[in-house]
Amino acid sequence: MSESTQSSITVLYFAAASTATGLTEEIVLIPSNGLPLSSLGDLLISRHLGTDLANVLQSSQWSVDAEMVDEPDSVVLKGGEEVAVICPVSGG
């Protein structure tokens, strides 16, 4: 059963990330044994080749289930999470 080899997460895009991808959210399949949050950026960039997403992610932070993540290396996505790309906000 192929369902057992992959799980999924929901990625939310805001501001520049939404502009770069043309999306506000997407479902992303991840391995059933998990995906380090620190690897998610490369996966998303590979899904959106030819966009400015790589540049946007360099200055963005991650949020997992509405909690900001300070150390992406310490988080492993297991499936079912809602991950948001949080772009820097310019004030004025």
TrEMBL record:
The modification 1-thioglycine is found at residue 92. The keyword Metal-binding does not apply. GO terms for molecular function: molybdopterin synthase activity; nucleotide binding. GO terms for biological process: Mo-molybdopterin cofactor biosynthetic process. Pfam families: ThiS. Gene3D superfamilies: 3.10.20.30. One of its GO terms (cellular component) is molybdopterin synthase complex. It is found in: Cytoplasm. The modification Glycyl adenylate is found at residue 92. Keywords: Cytoplasm, Molybdenum cofactor biosynthesis, Nucleotide-binding, Phosphoprotein. Signal peptide: none annotated. C-terminal thiocarboxylation occurs in 2 steps, it is first acyl-adenylated (-COAMP) via the hesA/moeB/thiF part of UBA4, then thiocarboxylated (-COSH) via the rhodanese domain of UBA4. Coiled coil: none annotated. Pathway: Cofactor biosynthesis; molybdopterin biosynthesis. Belongs to the MoaD family. MOCS2A subfamily. Acts as a sulfur carrier required for molybdopterin biosynthesis. Component of the molybdopterin synthase complex that catalyzes the conversion of precursor Z into molybdopterin by mediating the incorporation of 2 sulfur atoms into precursor Z to generate a dithiolene group. In the complex, serves as sulfur donor by being thiocarboxylated (-COSH) at its C-terminus by UBA4. After interaction with MOCS2B, the sulfur is then transferred to precursor Z to form molybdopterin. Heterotetramer; composed of 2 small (MOCS2A) and 2 large (MOCS2B) subunits. This is Molybdopterin synthase sulfur carrier subunit.
